[in-house]
Design goal:
Blueprint lengths: L1 H23 L9 H19 L9 H15 L2 H13 L3 H32 L2
Helix pairs in contact: 1-3, 2-3, 2-5, 4-5
Amino acid sequence: MMNLFLVMAGGALGSGLRYGISLALPTPTSSFPAATILVNIVGTLILGFVAGTTGTSLDMNPATRLLLGTGLCGGFTTYSAFAVETALLVEQGNLLLAGPYVVATLVACGLAAWAGMALSRAISCSTC
């Protein structure tokens, strides 16, 4: 029951943060979805960091992983918004934004995951 609470608490915080960013960076129709790509990159960086701590001196306990990884990052990042925004851009015939949005999201999030893992391992090694 405690694990469920941790995931729910992290998810609520992540969803609230995502909503705040969407208010700060509103996306007009047919525009580049800056808020969504930002939260997906930052969330992937955080999740990469959490994943990268496994087996290191920074290794997080399971409760912290649930709170930050499953909860916070799960509530913060949003694949569904990415997919719908891409579909809307395509539907509107805005392929000059849809294509780069997809490529930028995949590349930037992949690099963010790698950077998060590398950062956690570098910090861990500096404490060796």
